[in-house]
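Repro:
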Amino acid sequence: MEANDIDAVPGFRAALAVADSVLYEGYLLYPYRRSSPKNQVRWQFGVLLPESWARAHDLEGGGVAGSAESWWQQTECLLVAPAGATVRGRLRFLQLRRRTPEERLPGGGHRAADRVGDVLGFDEGVPRELDVAASVAELLAGEKLLNLKIPGSETVSPLPGGEGRTRWREWPLSTRVTLSLTPCKVTADAPLRAGESLFKLRVRTENATLGPPRDAPRDEALPHALIACHTLLTVPGGRFVSLLDPPGWACEAAGKCVNAQTYPVLSGEQVVLSSPILLYDNPRVAPESPGDLHDATEIDEILSLRTLTLTDAEKREARATDPRAAAIIDRVEAMTPEDLARLHGTIRDPQSPAPSWHPEAHSDTVEVAGKVVRRGSRVRLRPRLRGSDPQDMFLDGRTALVEAVLQDVDGAPHLAVTLEDDPAAELNQWYGRYRYFSPDETEPLDGEPA
């Protein structure tokens, strides 16, 4: 299989659609105008800056937060494959392209300007892709280092009417990608076929660009950065193992995977998307979504309606800011009432609705791990790795006080809790604002409330 054929791997196209949303997350926020305060500081996720500049600013990385900037990121995931399989990857990121309008001078020369006609000075993002590949046998013999480069460029285009011209500039980028593979132990009941083994795959990506002076501001370092950097991995002839919900025979190996600035999740069995934004396994773009809005923390319906409220002057500025902003406005203005109605909401799985509390179905107690838990009991939170709110992952191991034992409309019990070390716990108790966990996501603790 050639590198370009990885698009045909089952699950790859679905992962690619999600990856495009990741790539442009925060690229340009509503109201999509350059003058908007929200768009004064951009490029928030997966930013890999030049190593020398990052070190000078104490951006060493190593954490899990994709919004924490560094000069490197690391993906570790598990795969099952025979020795003859080949691991293929696609590194994707945005390269900053600076757009500078230049006004025409009376003498025939040109001078940089903030705006000429309908063209504003702005930093655009150009998507880049770099493919890598190595066989399992090759990686077992030793790690593979690839030095990949993106050339710089500078182009000039005349503006209509002879008002001036537009200059685009991209700075060269250099990156190091290191692939390595380590055999893992499995339990005797591991469902491996003949010739298959479990491996830990590591992909380390580093920004090797020389970059600006160490004391340069961030705006001068960004043209030398890999922005929204993420990786797609495939293993035709093999399969990946979930790190969010690993099978018992792979739990020990999954616990030893270390990911920095990335979150690898499955897209089918043969594809992994490792992104700087926390996702579930098998993420999908909602079919109702009319297109990228570059502001995924918002709801499509609300954001589309808000875009319609922009004044004509605001829309003109947004269109002059970036072609993608112009496309959003054009698309929203063309939406029909039926299009907007489809954004209002839908039920994906009627068998698994979100919890809805029964108004009269409150219980005094519930049994957890052989112990009776009631209002006032102390528990330690252990959120499920699958099917939980992503934010709950940050509460793993924290202690909480049970405020109520509730039942949803289907009769399933839930614990309403407040965190013991939360400074706002008393205020949340007064307002009745709780966090909700199923009993199997908690461990009963002895002792009085802290």
